Amino acid sequence: MKKLLVLFCVMFVSLCLSVFGVGGVGAAEKKPDKLVLMNAGTLSGDPGIDFLRQEWGKKHGITIEVIEQAERYLFDKE
Q1: Which of 43, 33, 32 minimizes the C-alpha distance to 66?
Q2: Single pTM value for the model
Q3: Residue 52, CA distances (Å) to 7, 41, 42, 60 in order
Q4: How many other C-beta atoms can be found within 10 angstroms of the C-beta atom of residue 62?
Q5: pLDDT mean by block of 10 residues, the chain; 78 residues
Q6: How far is residue 3's CA from residue 11's CA, in Å, rounded to a whole number?
Q7: Are 39 and 65 in contact (CB under 8 A)?
Q8: DSSP conformation letters of 35-56
Q9: Angstrom distance (rounded) from CA 67 to CA 39
C-alpha cells in the first residue's frame, strides 16, 4: 500500500509539472531577436511560406532570416 501511495504521488507531481510548466512566467516572456527558416529551394517557388513568414514575423515582432538551399544540400547545410 505504501509503494502504491508513493507511486501515485510521483505521478501526480510529474503531471502537475508537465501541465503547469517548470520554467514559470519568466521563461515565457523571453523571445528571440530572430528565427532562421531553412527552405528547400527559393521562396519565389513557395509564395505561401513567404507570406506566412512575413505575417508571423510582423505579428510577433521577430525577424525571420531565410536560408534558401537546394533540397539536395539542405541537410548538409543544416
Answers
A1: 43
A2: 0.51
A3: 46, 16, 15, 12
A4: 13
A5: 54 61 59 86 84 89 87 71
A6: 12
A7: no
A8: EEEEEES-GGG-HHHHHHHHHH
A9: 6
